[in-house]
Protein: EAL domain-containing protein
Amino acid sequence: LDLENELRQAIEHGALELYYQPQVDLRGGHIIGAEALVRWPHPTRGWIMPGHFIPLAEESGLIVPLGEWVLRQACLQNRAWQEAGLPPVSVAVNLSARQFASCDLVDLTEGILRETGLDPHFLELELTESAVMLDINAFIKATKRLKDLSVALSIDDFGTGFSSLSYLRRFEIDRLKIDRSFVNDIVHDPSSAAIVTTVVSLAHNLNLVALAEGVETEAQVRFLRSRDCDEMQGFYFSRPLPAEEFARLLGSAC
Ligand code: G
Ligand code: G
Ligand code: MN
Ligand code: NA
Structure:
């Protein structure tokens, strides 16, 4: 059995798992969201990380059923946390450019929100600049309709995509996620520091929230606070966690 067939079966059997990485408010220090990150607990190969099977899923078209499973599971989980009385947070789901190009993404999202009963304000979709570049008109149409549903939208890995900045004024984006390659070097590399400072200003001037990804050290946190960055995500606060561990962390904070 090759990996593609195994992945197809894993999707069909609901054998994938979602981990959740906390997103934290830089001023108050509390958890405001969770990014859902898919993992594949493989019976013989151990845990397979998305970097290894998302590209395969994209090439084979399996990203469509995989993405549907991730979206439904993340919404169900977030709804369950809220029902359990945990402080409400948003759940962020990564979308591949390929999924964005599939014309029924908006209908699918609407259906899953209705089915799970999750308030759309607590769902965020993470898009990449490659989704913008794939088909700009389809992107504009889909993002408009998603905003009509009250779903939040962010640009993931911001600054790595070589796309034109003009899309930022044409789309109803809520948040810029500053790529971790920039955040990684802010304390020692003046260029990275300048880029992060500038992206935070850009976000604020466009009324967007700035989130720094890949935050690992106290020094990085201090730098980001000094630049008025709004939110952070990274190993400094927490690695991605299994659902039960995320719930425990969220519950212990209140
Ligand atoms: O969890 P990890 O850092 O290994 O994730 C690696 C990459 O896989 C990240 O770029 C992340 O955006 C992507 N990824 C994780 N989960 C999903 C998912 O459910 N769908 C898509 N399309 N990408 C994902
Ligand atoms: O591309 P995306 O932002 O979706 O990727 C998220 C990935 O980044 C996940 O695979 C997650 O494991 C990883 N990640 C999260 N926090 C950190 C961090 O602080 N440092 C590093 N190196 N990777 C991180
Ligand atoms: Mn992401
Ligand atoms: Na990212």
Notes: The longest helix spans residues 63-83. The chain has a mean pLDDT of 94.
